[in-house]
Amino acid sequence: MRYKKHFQLAIRGVTLVSLIAFIFTACEDDSYTYLFTDKSTPVSKFTPVINGFDVEFQNQSEHATTYFWDFGDGTTSTDTNAVHSYSQKNKYMVKLIASDNNGVTDTAVQEVAVGYPLASFTYVANKTTVTFTNTSINANSYSWDFGDGTTSTEENPTHTFPDGGTYTVALTASDGVDNNTFTQDVFVVAKYQPVIKSPSFEGSTSVYRNEETGWYWVGCSGSSSPTPPDGTNACKFGSAGNLIAQTFEVEANTDYILSYYWVTKAGGTIGIKIKVTDGTDHNVILYEGQTGVTPNASEYQSGSFEFNSGSSTSVRLWFEYGDVESRLDMITIK
Predict the structure, then answer these.
(1) Which domain holds residue 15?
(2) Domain of 251: which CATH number?
(3) Where is the signal peptide (predicted)?
C-alpha cells in the first residue's frame, strides 16, 4: 500500500519556491511544496544632477516598482527618472517615495540647492603655460588662486607657472550674494632649459673659443675694456668678418627669450648682427636682427629678442660684426 503526503506552507509574500522531496519506500512517496516569502523591501535613493535651474533626478532605488516625486515647490511626478525645472533660486527639500507591489514603501529626502553658483573648470597645459576654461554656472564674477602665490579675476585666464610640478588651483564663483569654490590639482611639465656654454666669456680664451666647451670663433678676441657687466671679460668684434656661433639643444615649437649686453664705439650704425638658425640646416632662419650703436662707448646696454624653435630641436646662435667695433657679454636664454 502507498500513501502520498502533500504539505503546503502558505506564507504571505511575493516569491514561490517549490521543493519536492521523494522518499522511496516499499509503499509510499512524499511530496512537499513550500511557499516562501521574499523579504526584500524597497530602498529609496536618488542623485540630483543640477544644471542651472534644471535638475535631472537619477533614480537609484532598489526593489521598487512605482515612484512618487515631490519636488518641494508644489509639483510632483511619477516618472522613474524625473527631470524638473525650477522657477527661482532656492533650496528645495525633494522627496522620493519608492513602493513595491505589496504596498511596502520607503522614502528618501534630499535638499537640492537650485540657482546657486557652482564653480568648475577644465584646463589644457602646454609645458608650464596653462589655459583655463571656466565652466561655472549661475555666477557673474570669478576669483582664481593658482597655488603659486598668484591670482586672477579673469573669467578664462591663461597662466604660466614658474616651474614644473603639481599646483592646487582654486576657482571661486560668485553671483554677488553667494559663492562656491572648486579646487583641482593641475600638473605642469617644465619646458627644456637650453644651456649656453661660456655665456660671459670668462677664463682662458683657449677654452671658451673651443666649440666643444664654448664658441665657434672667427677673428674675435677676448677683451676686458670697457668693464663688462659680468666677470672681467667680454667678446670683442673688431673688424668685418668677425663672428662667433654656438649650437645648443632646445625643445621644438617653444618660445624662447634670449638676452645679452652689448656696447659699441661711436661712428657706425650697426653694432652686432644677430641670427638664430636651425642647428643643422643653417639656411632655416628662426630669427634675424641687429643692434644699434650705444650712446656711450663705455656703458653696456641690455638687449633681448624672442624666437620660436619651430620644428628644430637644436639651434645655432650667431653674433657678427656690424660696421663698428663692438663688445658682447652675459648671454642668457629662458
Answers:
(1) 3-34
(2) 2.60.120.260
(3) 1-26
